[in-house]
Each structure stands twice: as C-alpha cells, then as structure tokens.
C-alpha cells in the first residue's frame, strides 16, 4: 500500500464535474461551413468533376455533327433628296436599328422561309426529312435553326449589315437552303417593301391635306373674332381698357369713402361739443374754437359776399375781405388760446395778461375796420352762433355731396366691371384659337418633314440591299470539344458540390474534436491516437506503450487531469466504458493504469466486462480465476489479484463466464470488493461493457467515483454517443468526460492529436446467445492476445506455440 492519504469511510463522494452545456439534437445536421465541407468532401467533388469531364468527352465523340452556312448583306434606305441637283447621295444615318430589326423579322418569317424552301424543293432533302414529323414541318425546323445578327466585329460592330446563318446536319443542304433564303428576301424587298412605303406616303399626304384645311379654317375664325372684338387690336400692346377704368374707379371710391368718413366725424364732433358748451353755458369764443381754419376762411368769404350792396363796395371787396379775414381770424385764434391758458394758469398769470393785451389790440383794429364798413348791415348781424350754424350747414352739404359722388362712382364701376369681364372672355377665346392654330401648324410642319424624308420626289425608290458575302458552304460548329469539356467539368463540379453538401449534412458522424466537445455537453478530457506495442521484454505481448513513446503523452495528459483528485483521496475508483464494441476502451484503460503506476501509485485494473473480457489478453494473463469467482464466493480476493509484471500495476481478470453478470455486479458483494480494493490500492480502474449493448455500465458507474466514456468517431455515430451519455446520466453516474480514440478517423482528429495510426484495436463479441465467451463467438482461453479482428499480436504467442 502506498503512503497516499486514504479516503475516509465518511468522506463524501466525488462531486460531478459534468459540463453544463446542453447536448445538441442528435438528428440535427452539421454546421454549414462551405470551406470545411469542400475540404472534407474534396475526393467526392473531384470524382464528380472527372465523371462530368468523361461524360463530356463521350458526348463529343458520339454527338451528331452540325454544320453552319452563313451570308452577310448590306441593308440601307436610298435617299434621293439630292436628285433635283442631278447627283446621288447616301444618307449616313439612312438605316436605323429599328429598320434592321424589321428586316430580321422579315427574313425569319414563315412566308419568306416557306417560299425559299419551295425554290429548292427542300422538303425532299434527306436531311430535312430526318428532322421533320407530324408536329414539326420544314418551315419550323429552318426557323428554329436560323440565326440573325446585325453589325460586324470589332470597330465595325455598328455597321448596318445583316448576318444570316443556318445550321443543319448536312453541309450541302445548308448551303442550298441559305442561298434560296437570300434570293427570296431580295425579291420580297423589290416587290413588297416599295408598295408598303408608297401606301404610307399616300396616307401621310392625305393627313397633310386635312390638317392644312383645318389650319385655314382656324385662321378664318381668328380673323372674324378679331373683327368683332370690343376693342381695337394693336398686337401684344393691347390692353383691357375696361379693366383699367374699373381699377381707377375703385381707387376714387376709396378716396371718397375716406373724405366722407372725415367730414362725418368732424360734424359729429362739432355737434357733440356744441351741446356740451350750451349745457355748460360757455361763451361765444368757445363756439368759435370749434371751427377749423379752413372753414373760417369759407365763412369769412360767405359773410363778405353776402353784405355787398354797391358797385364801389364790390370793387373794394377783395381788399376789405382780405383785411377782415386776417384780423377776424387772428382774434378768434387769440381768444381760443386765451381760453385755453386761462384754464391752465388762471386769469392773473403773466402769460394770460400778455395775451389779453394782444386781444385788446386786435379788437381795436377790428373796430376800425368795422367803422369803414358801416354801410354793410349784414356784417353787423354776424354772431358766433350764426357762424357756427353756417359751419355745420357747410359740413352737412359736404357730406351730402360726397354721398352723391359715391353713388355715381358705384354705378360707373359696375358698368366697367361688366365690360371688363366680357372682354376677358373674349381674350380667353382668342388665346384658345391661337393655341389650336399653333398645334395644327406644328403637326403640319412635322408631316411636311416626313414627306421630305420619304423622298416623295421619286415616289419612294425603296431599300438598297447588297450581298456582301455570298452564302458559304457549311462548316462544322458542333460539337465543340472545348465547350463540351468546359461544360462537362462545370456540370460535374456542380453535381459534386451538391452531392458533397448533401452527404456532409446528412452524415451522422462526428467530424472534428471541437464538434464533439460542443455537441455532447461533456468535456473531451483526452485524445488518443496511435498505439505502438512496447519493446520492453517485461511488457512482451502487452498493449502497453513505452513511457518514451510519443503516444504515451496522451495518457499522461489524462492522468494529469485526474491526478489532483487521486492524490487528495477524493478519486479512488473510475469506470471506463464505450458506446459499442471495438472502441478501444480496454486498451486505453490498461495504458492509463500503467501511466498511474509510473508515479509510484498502486493501481488495480478490474475487468468488469464478464460478458466479453479482454484485459487478460492485453496483459497476457490467464483468465481461469477472476471477478466472477469472487462475486460467487468461490475464491478470495487475494487469490484473484495478480501482478502484471509492471511495478505498482495489478489486475483482476473477469474470470470464467457466467449467465448473470448484471446481477453479480448489482450485488453487495461487488460493493464490498470495491471497498476492499480501495483499501489496498491508490487507484482502482474498472473496465465495463459497452453502454448500448449491456446494462453493466449503468450499474458499475453508480458504484464508482467517476465514469469516462471512450468515443471512437470512426465508427461511433452521433445518435449512439448521445444515447450512451443519456443512459449514463440517467443512472445518476458521475460522467467526468469523454476520451477520443482517433484511430481510423479523418485527418481533423489525427491532426489535432498529433498522431497517425494504422493499429487495429481489439474487438468484442457481444450478443444475446450464450456460449463460452462473447455470446455467440467462442474464444479459446489460451492466454493469447488477439486484435479486434481476431489476429494474433506479435510477441503474444502462448507457451508451446511458435
């Protein structure tokens, strides 16, 4: 027993360290990485491409040969616009693309093709007969195989030329048919095109006459309309005089409204102020203050003219009137100012005193003027009350005059508006007639231009058609080797890509280690590749790798992953199983035990696969006594634990075959065996049968601290691995992780592991029939080591055999 710390009986079991990532759907297809798919399926894609190339070559060698006969024609429209000068010219742009397109339709029409075939009696040609039936006649066949293009090549691609080509299986027949087609086309142009264009010329000429007649009628209507116009027409400078009058009347109405409003407001203010003065018993000066200066002038003039009696008085009236008006107006202004200042400053204020003196002076002057006019009785009777009444009378008269003026202006404005609207209607009709005349004139000019372009002087001479290249004998154009090869390879490549994608997406195997790690939900804790037999004589016949071998590093990594828990005493028992047989679990278990033994640990390997044991063969040990005898109570534990020849590594073989291995493993005896083994060894490794074939792993995993699943991507499908993990997790086992066996896998696995292998792993014989070993396959218990395929290993020959 080593000096490692022992696990107490009360110690808690190892906690599961399962990856918490969810498992993917086992029915789901792989990720769609085009580059990876092409890399994995490159042989399949290359095979399909080569197959496409081969089929293309076969097609080229056996396909029916086709020949092409071609001809080239120049088609242009003759221009005779210079014929009046006695010279002929060719329009540089006489033929447009539309004209060439029309001629292409003419050549490919059934009429032209049918007449051409009748010329050479093509329906009796053997090649034509071979390609016609009840559904396809000769015309249809020729129409399908005729090719029409325009222009030349290179810098002559815009040339006004027509290229005609016909493909047929007989080169001589192709030449005859193309010659007949060109001849029929030329005949058609001579006979039909000219007639059609002449008819077009007639229709255009007829349209010209009608439009010219309509234009003359419009001109007559326009003249009559101008003659009946309500104004004198002077060209573009004509204007609507009624509209101008209406605008002036509207402006004058606005002025009258403003004046009337001012007079009415003044009259209302005077009447209101006069009532207030009377109620307040004001003096005459306050009444005179209501009269504005302009009205005072009018009142003075009125008084002077009313008092005139003699001729002498009338002669001096202007001078006296001017003088009286000045003095009287000055007096009224001073009195009004005195009334205002007296109210503001009082009667004793110096300013008021000065103003009173000025008033006295003006009154004195006014009395002198009155003395000179003693003969005027009316002047003596003028009082402030009379002047104010006369002033209000003037205002009322002005208001009445303004109202009368407004009524007159409204009548004139209504008449001007009516006349203006009638004139606007005439102007609109005039513009409509002018627009119609413009449209007719434009259309007339367009028709005249068309007639000029159609060469009416010569009555339409037609098209110029010249054969630039006579029909040539048919040349072989199909099958073309380069096109067939390129097409075959392309189709093969497309087919290969399609098949590769489908094959890759529906492949139920794991393709990369990262895919396994992400899909299973449990970590990949180790990856084992090539296994080479040890050259150590002590390990002769055993599948134990040398410590110096590169592949031993994989087991060291796995050992390192578990070592910390082993040294801590938390990990004492571990079960290794696989999804199915031939996954290499026993080989991995044996080498893992040897790797732990290298550290000086005491390791026991228990072959718990009592249905198809293999550990004894890997270690070249006898199987006569083992686990089955111990569980049945036939032998003691010390009798079945045997040394392997490797220091620190012991083994307990499966023992003889039994009918009820699951019941034995489920018993408490097996629990006691494990406890006894843990007390004697630092590490106990238990080999169990495949998860999908037997129930033993589900039982043993519950009794061990951890369980590890060996996955061999070369033969284990996703569905099988998912089901194995599901069964182990359902049995409450502590599934620590997966160990990849990359033997026979793709380069993605071997490249990651760093090893390439050709080693054959050992197999099993699981089944449902009972036999000596393997349930259906007898295995001789001769202590020999056999591979999974039944081959003996070198160096494992039993005693007495060579």
Automatic annotation (TrEMBL):
Q: Where are the transmembrane segments?
A: 42-61
Q: Where is this region: Disordered?
A: 781-802
Q: What are the subcellular locations of this protein?
A: Cell inner membrane
Q: Pfam family example for this protein?
A: Wzz
> What are its E.C. numbers?
2.7.10.2
Top enzyme class of this protein?
transferase
* A GO-annotated cellular component: plasma membrane
Per UniProt, residues of the Polysaccharide chain length determinant N-terminal domain are 34-118
Name the reaction it catalyses.
L-tyrosyl-[protein] + ATP = O-phospho-L-tyrosyl-[protein] + ADP + H(+)
Q: Which domain of life is it from?
A: Bacteria
Which membrane topology term applies here?
Answer: Multi-pass membrane protein
Keyword Chloroplast belongs to the record: no
Q: Please state every residue range assigned to the domain named AAA.
A: 584-693
**Keywords on record:** ATP-binding, Cell inner membrane, Cell membrane, Kinase, Membrane, Nucleotide-binding, Transferase, Transmembrane, Transmembrane helix, Tyrosine-protein kinase
Which GO molecular function annotation, any one, does this entry have? identical protein binding
Q: Which family does it belong to?
A: Belongs to the CpsD/CapB family. Belongs to the etk/wzc family.
Protein name in UniProt: non-specific protein-tyrosine kinase
What species is this protein from?
Planctomicrobium piriforme
The lineage is: Bacteria, Pseudomonadati, Planctomycetota, Planctomycetia, Planctomycetales
């Amino acid at each position: 027993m080593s000096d490692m710390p022992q696990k107490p009986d009360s110690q808690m079991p190892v906690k599961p360290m399962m990856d918490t990532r969810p498992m993917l759907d086992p029915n789901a297809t792989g990720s769609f990485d085009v580059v990876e798919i092409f890399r994995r399926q490159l042989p399949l894609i290359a095979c399909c491409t080569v197959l496409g190339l081969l089929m293309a070559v076969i097609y080229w060698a056996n396909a029916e040969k086709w020949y092409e006969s071609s001809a080239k024609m120049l088609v242009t429209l003759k221009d005779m616009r210079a014929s009046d000068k006695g010279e002929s010219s060719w329009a540089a742009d006489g033929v447009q693309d539309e004209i060439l397109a029309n001629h292409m339709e003419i050549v490919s029409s059934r009429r032209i093709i049918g007449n051409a075939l009748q010329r050479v009696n093509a329906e009796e040609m053997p090649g034509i007969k071979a390609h016609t039936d009840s559904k396809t006649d000769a015309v249809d066949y020729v129409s399908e195989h005729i090719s029409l293009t325009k222009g030349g090549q290179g810098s002559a691609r815009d040339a006004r030329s027509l290229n005609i080509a016909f493909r047929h299986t007989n080169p001589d027949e192709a030449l005859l048919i193309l010659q007949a087609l060109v001849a029929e086309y030329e005949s058609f142009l001579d006979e039909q095109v000219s007639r059609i264009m002449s008819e077009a010329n007639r229709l255009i000429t007829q349209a010209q006459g009608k439009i010219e007649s309509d234009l003359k009628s419009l001109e007559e209507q326009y003249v009559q309309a101008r003659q009946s116009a309500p104004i004198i027409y002077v060209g573009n400078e004509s204007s609507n005089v009624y509209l101008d009058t209406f605008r002036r009347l509207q402006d004058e109405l606005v002025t009258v409204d403003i004046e009337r409003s001012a007079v009415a407001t003044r009259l209302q203010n005077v009447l209101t102020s006069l009532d207030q003065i009377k109620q307040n018993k004001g003096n005459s000066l306050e009444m005179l203050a209501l009269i504005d200066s302009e009205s005072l002038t009018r009142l003075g003039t009125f008084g002077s003219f009313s008092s005139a009696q003699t001729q002498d008085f009338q002669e001096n009236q202007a001078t006296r009137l001017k003088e009286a008006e000045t003095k009287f107006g000055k007096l009224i202004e001073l009195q009004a100012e005195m009334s205002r200042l007296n109210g503001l400053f009082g009667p004793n204020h110096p300013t008021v005193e000065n103003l009173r003196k000025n008033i006295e002076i003006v009154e004195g002057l006014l009395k002198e003027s009155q003395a000179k006019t003693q003969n005027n009785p009316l002047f003596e009777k003028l009082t402030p009350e009379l002047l104010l009444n006369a002033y209000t009378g003037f205002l009322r008269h002005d208001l009445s005059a303004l109202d009368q003026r407004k009524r007159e202006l409204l009548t004139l404005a209504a008449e001007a508006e009516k006349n203006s609207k009638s004139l606007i209607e005439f102007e609109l009709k005039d513009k409509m007639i002018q627009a119609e005349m413009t449209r007719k004139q434009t259309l007339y000019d367009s028709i005249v231009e068309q007639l000029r372009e159609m060469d009416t002087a010569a009555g339409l001479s037609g098209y110029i058609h010249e054969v630039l290249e006579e029909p040539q004998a048919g040349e072989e154009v199909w099958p073309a080797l380069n096109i067939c090869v390129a097409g075959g390879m392309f189709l093969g490549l497309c087919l290969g890509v399609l098949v590769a994608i489908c094959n890759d997406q529906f492949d139920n195997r794991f393709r990369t280690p990262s895919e396994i790690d992400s899909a299973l939900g449990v970590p990949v804790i180790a990856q084992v590749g090539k296994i080479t037999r040890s050259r150590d004589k002590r390990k002769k016949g055993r599948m134990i790798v040398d410590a110096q071998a590169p592949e031993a590093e994989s087991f060291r990594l796995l050992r390192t992953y578990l070592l910390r828990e082993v040294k801590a005493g938390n990990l004492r028992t571990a079960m290794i199983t696989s999804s199915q047989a031939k996954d290499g679990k026993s080989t991995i278990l044996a080498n893992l035990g040897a790797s732990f033994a290298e550290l000086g640990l005491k390791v026991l390997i228990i072959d718990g696969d009592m249905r198809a044991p293999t550990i004894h063969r890997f270690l070249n040990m006898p199987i006569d006594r083992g686990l089955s005898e111990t569980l049945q109570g036939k032998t003691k534990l010390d009798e079945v634990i045997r040394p392997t020849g490797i220091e620190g590594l012991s083994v307990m073989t499966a023992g003889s075959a039994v009918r009820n291995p699951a019941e034995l493993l489920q018993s408490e005896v097996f629990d006691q065996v494990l406890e006894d083994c843990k007390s004697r060894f630092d590490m106990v490794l238990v080999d169990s049968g495949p998860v999908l074939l037997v129930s033993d792993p589900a039982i043993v995993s519950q009794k061990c601290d951890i369980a590890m699943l060996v996955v061999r991507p070369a033969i284990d499908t996703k569905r099988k691995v998912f089901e194995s993990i599901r069964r182990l997790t359902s049995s409450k086992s502590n599934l620590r992780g997966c160990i990849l066996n990359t033997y026979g896998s793709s380069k993605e696995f071997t490249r990651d592991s760093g090893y390439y292998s050709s080693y054959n792993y050992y197999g099993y014989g699981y089944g449902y029939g009972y036999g000596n070993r393997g349930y259906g396959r007898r295995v001789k218990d001769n202590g020999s080591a056999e591979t999974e395929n039944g081959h003996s290993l070198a160096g494992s020959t039993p005693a007495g055999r060579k």
